[in-house]
Amino acid sequence: MKTLLPLALASTLTTFAAAQQALQLDNVVTSPFGYVSVPDEQLEDDYIAVGAEFRNAFGDVQGAISVGGPRGRFPKARIRSIGELLRSEADALSRRQERERVTRARTRRAGRWR
């Protein structure tokens, strides 16, 4: 099987098949509060990441914001509070994108769009 990435750690995803499996959310913890956390050893030794996606006005994912650091700085309670903050900020980014889309559409209709 062809390797996509160099092996940095024993848990590094190096093949397309491994990446596909990871994208099935087998290795991440999804929260009912709208964020995900990547458990220890998935990115690098003793490291954890928490993130949330933001979307455009049509509901398409446009990007994500995340925070990561040493596992010792992310007890479960902190993961939840960081995740909820990221979800809130991602929602704000999504709303901003909607406002910008509406502004561009109004400007275009008014003939001021170049």
CATH-defined topology:
Beta-Lactamase
Second CATH tier, the architecture: 2-Layer Sandwich
| Overall form | elongated
What percentage of amino acids are in beta strands? Answer: 15-25%
The spatial strand order of the largest sheet comes to: 1-2-3-4
Distance between the termini: 50 Å
Number of helices: 2
Q: What gyration radius follows from the Cα positions, in whole Å?
A: 18 Å
Which structural class do you get from the secondary structure elements?
alpha+beta
Give the CATH H-level superfamily: GAF domain
Q: Would you tell me the overall average pLDDT?
A: 76
User: Which stretches of 5+ consecutive residues score pLDDT under 50?
Assistant: none
Which CATH top level class fits?
Answer: Alpha Beta
Number of domains as seen in the coordinates: 1
Q: Please write the string of helix (H) and strand (E) elements.
A: HEEEEH
Helix content: 25-40%
Q: Mind summarizing the main beta sheet?
A: 4 strands, antiparallel
The tally of beta strands, per DSSP, is 4
